[in-house]
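Our consortium's second objective concerns turning raw sequence data into structural hypotheses that experimental partners can test. To show how far this objective has progressed, the report includes one record in full. It was chosen at random from the queue rather than selected for favorable results. The single chain below, 269 residues long, was entered without modification.
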Amino acid sequence: MPDLDDLLRARLRAAGVDLPALSGPDLGPWQAWLLLREHLGRRATLVDLYELAAASRGIRPGELNAADREHLKAISRRARRRFGQAEVLPGSDRSGDPHEVSGYDPAWQERFVIWRDRLTAALGPAATRIDHVGSTAVPGLAAKPVIDIQGSVPDVADERSYLPLLESAGLILRLRETGHLFLWPPPAYPRDVHVHVCASGSSWEHNHLLFRDYLRGHPAAAARYAAVKQDLIARWHDDRKAYGEAKTAFVLDTLEAADRWAGTAGWHR
């Protein structure tokens, strides 16, 4: 049987994966990961696929070479289509961007204001609200120095009402998926902002605002998140995608705690 992390073994068993079969010819890493994904949804991440692939070769996930990782990312994107999510847009790739976690910088709020004003001018009434979300929106929290902005629109599927306006503000579409568009600057410009478009009143809007406000009001949770990020950036310093997906369990667990808090604190977005 492959040498797997105990937690991953338990998750595989819960998903009904026959662990001894992982050593045989009938159940490869990809098939096992699909079963895990069907059972756990977003909690089954690219990092799990790395671990399954590495274990099948008798190595550790960090020992997978760059070509192996790119191959696994490509097949995981096929799973996103299978589970109702869209592919990234051709020609929107970036390379060579810094991948680091920095101590909190008060200038992040100032950069948000600059981008908020630019987007407000571009979108006008097409947007119902524009919010600073993500780690750079939480005072004191370490983060990658990229401003996450969430723009809410009445109908995210009505791209003609807002997408050309965002492109006129200097952004390109990177990802389109159900209920969400993701844009960033073209490759010739610094990666200083990520813009997420969602529907007003959607769960996407709700969760990002709730996560931000919960961390703002719970310094201990924010400190735990900072520690998680520092640990993961050290492990995945050369793999931005793996770093992002490895945070999933913390984010989902925190959202569960935040939902309980919101119900007692009277929080509303």
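The partners drew two points from this record. The chain has a mean pLDDT of 91. The chain has two domains: 6-82, 107-265. Both points have been shared with the crystallography group to help prioritize constructs.
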